[in-house]
Design a protein that fits this description.
Blueprint lengths: L19 H16 L5 E2 L16 H8 L3 H5 L8 H12 L7 E7 L1 H13 L5 E5 L5 H8 L3 E5 L10 H14 L2 E7 L12 H14 L6 E7 L26 E8 L12 E7 L2 H18 L5 H12 L1 H31 L12 E5 L3 H9 L3 E2 L1 E3 L2 E5 L5 H17 L2
Parallel strand pairs: 1-10, 3-4, 3-5, 5-6, 6-7
Antiparallel strand pairs: 2-8, 7-8, 9-12, 11-12
Helix pairs in contact: 4-10, 5-6, 7-8, 10-11, 11-13, 12-13
Bound molecules: pyridoxal-5'-phosphate.
Pyridoxal-5'-phosphate (PLP) binds next to helix 5.
Keywords: Aminotransferase, Pyridoxal phosphate, Transferase
Organism: Geosporobacter subterraneus DSM 17957
GO molecular function: identical protein binding; pyridoxal phosphate binding; transaminase activity
Length: about 425
């Protein structure tokens, strides 16, 4: 029998292989069994862990979930999502920074589901989807799964700020080739760099898009991935850029991706929403209809108990305060780890991408595969990416964050 024999359709033939991040995590766990967990730095996990390596949770959220009556678990949710959840998700996304315009929401299985529907419904087959050169790997997977490809611009300029020129050049180039353009922008607390665009940078991005949108046949969808927003700083300050999404031309549609994975520590419940902002009522109504149809056509409906939890949190000021109090403790733990890492990176002269907040710090380097292998000799497990190494401060205790930069600097020097 031929080993090359394949049963799948041509468009689904892909090389088999384990997910890189999960493979490194497995290797770290194996090393922990051999050498002891305290000797191993496992910086591969993209979830917030406490200092003992256990998943950090918000107790009030889990209690709420556990207190729901059986019927809440058993029953379907409406295809578009529970109406009370959809209202709550708008509040969770915008808080006091709601932009002007028509705003509609559709429940999706996490932010991932929102990415899927946006790519499918707002770009054409064969189109390029635009994202920066530092991006979350599944953007490419989701694009390719749906017959699209990823195009990238350079995220940082020589001053380590948002590279507007590179962004603009790429938008212009793509809009010469295609009429629909989906732009995936993960900010604040970008994965993998920890960068957050400033309000001025957002303004520059939108001004440029408005210029491109002066041709009415061009349709631009700006997908704002805020997966890490609840760990990106003060609630309303880190959302202050959102008001700028009001009053845009009708051929620029903003879609915000809401996720309960990180901000509510409900990764496994697969709950989130996509929320549109448009100056045109018909565009918002079409958004609702089209994405509800896609829900039915892909996964039917979402996870009802998680939806009910969010609705209850935003219906009770006391509950919301409690959730925020617990989350602040986690945010504090995360910022302390990042600060220690940054401080030691400065001491070791280690160049890192401009980090402002979030789960990851990225170290640009020319030979990431070799450097991560070298680090494994010291039982440090980080993830090689195209142009650098992703270190998950979210999953590494503070004392370990302190010792890693020096080791990283040494390992990089070896291969330069
Ligand atoms: C940048 C980014 N966007 C979106 C997501 C989506 O997460 P979920 O589908 O669990 O909401 C993640 C999760 O790791 C992420 O890192």
């Amino acid at each position: 029998m031929s080993t090359n024999f394949s049963m799948v359709a041509a468009h689904s033939r892909r090389p088999a292989g384990e997910d890189n991040i999960f493979a490194i995590n497995n290797a770290a766990q194996q090393a922990a069994k051999v050498h002891g967990a305290d000797k191993v730095v496992n910086a591969s996990v993209g979830a917030l862990l406490d200092d003992d390596g256990k998943l950090s949770i918000l107790p009030s959220v889990i209690e709420l979930l556990k207190s729901l009556p059986a019927v809440e678990y058993a029953a379907y949710a409406p295809i578009a999502g529970l109406p009370s959840f959809l209202e709550a998700s708008k509040k969770a996304v915008f808080r006091d920074q709601m932009p002007e315009g028509y705003i509609e929401a559709i429940a999706t299985p996490g932010g991932s589901g929102a990415i899927r529907h946006t790519i499918w419904n707002y770009s054409n087959g064969g189109d390029y989807i635009l994202t920066p050169d530092w991006y979350w790997g599944p953007y490419k997977t989701i694009a390719e799964e749906h017959g699209r490809a990823i195009a990238t611009y350079t995220l940082f300029d020589e001053k380590d700020q948002f590279n507007l020129q590179s962004f603009a050049d790429k938008v212009e180039e793509l809009l010469k080739k295609q009429d629909q353009l989906v732009i995936l922008l993960n900010s604040p607390a970008n994965n993998p760099t920890g960068y957050s665009l400033t309000n001025e940078e957002w303004e520059a991005v939108l001004n440029y898009l408005k210029k491109e949108a002066s041709s009415p046949e061009k349709k631009i969808t700006l997908f704002v991935d805020i997966a890490y927003i609840d760990f990106a700083g003060e609630t309303n300050e880190c959302r202050s850029f959102m008001k700028q999404f009001g009053g845009l031309p009708e051929n620029i549609l903003t879609i915000m991706a809401f996720s309960m994975s990180k901000g509510y520590t409900l990764y496994g419940m697969r709950c989130g929403a996509m929320i549109c902002v448009s100056a045109n009522k018909a565009v918002a109504e079409e958004f609702k209809a089209v994405n509800q149809f896609s829900n039915r056509g892909v996964w039917s409906n979402g996870t009802r108990p998680a939806m009910t939890v969010l609705a209850q949190i935003f219906e009770s000021p006391q509950l919301l305060t409690q959730v925020e109090k617990e989350r602040n403790t986690l945010q504090q733990m995360l910022s302390e780890r990042a600060e220690v890492f940054l401080e030691n990176a400065r001491k070791a002269n280690l160049k890192i991408c401009p980090y402002k907040a979030g789960f990851f710090i990225t170290i640009p380097c020319s030979n990431p595969e070799a450097v991560t292998k070298e680090l494994q000799k010291d039982l440090i497990f980080a993830v090689p990416m195209g142009k650098g190494i992703r270190f998950a401060v979210c999953s590494v205790p503070k004392d370990q964050c302190a010792i890693v930069p020096e080791k990283l600097a040494q390992a990089i020097a070896k291969f330069e």
